[in-house]
Known about the structure:
This protein is mostly beta strands.
Amino acid sequence: MTTAFHRRRLAYWGAAAAALVLTGGAIAVAEQASATGTSASGASAAGSSSSGTSSSGASSTGKVLWKPNTTVGPTSFASVQCATGNFSVVTSGKGKVWQAYQAAGQERCEALGPVLTDGQTFYVGWSSKVAIDDSNDRYIFQLKCDPSTGTANHPIEIDATDGRVRLQEWDTKHVAHPIWTAPIANNQWHSYALKIHLGRTDGTIDLWYDGKKQTFSTGSGTFTGTTYDGSSDYLKWGSYHPSSGAAYNTFTSPTMATTLQLATAGS
Length: 267
């Protein structure tokens, strides 16, 4: 990553520092009430989501930690890595959603979520549909390391083609371990939810796909391995991998929360 990109991230988090809540040594970025309000359960009212940080996402059963706001637009993400105008809010059968358009020949169109802390445990949920014009795979979700080199780079990633979706864990030597796959097709909605415990060698992953708990290729419903590396990790959604064809990833606002119920409420 460039020095300028690091400066932009530092500026973003410097401005948000007053809103960060430290809980048990982990950064908990709480949901800010949207223009239409927040329900008693801590989930945003239908058709809206939050853009910042406060304690309004708390409830007796859990707390929403972070959720971007389609009303606010792309600035509710920490940063967007995309050609100008290619990451936007569109209307779908699921209401206002995000759309990442990776034009042919471009490397990526991705939006960044919050910075994470080693040892943190959280759930994150969203729904997505892809439209990929070639046979190459695209990363549609990444848990990304900083720096990229000398680390696992992206300890967890979900990649898709027009035919299958796959979850891979990358270890500290940047070796991929495919641990789950399922068939998909272009322009079909599917829901994803992950429970992630962050750790360099003792991290864990659980996956729910279309509302059902998944079993990994190891035979277990929980995978243990690398889920954190480097000096700073964060989340990304969109479309990544240089390819000759274009690709779209259309997705609902990802919700990061302390419970599965809250993380999947909007997906």
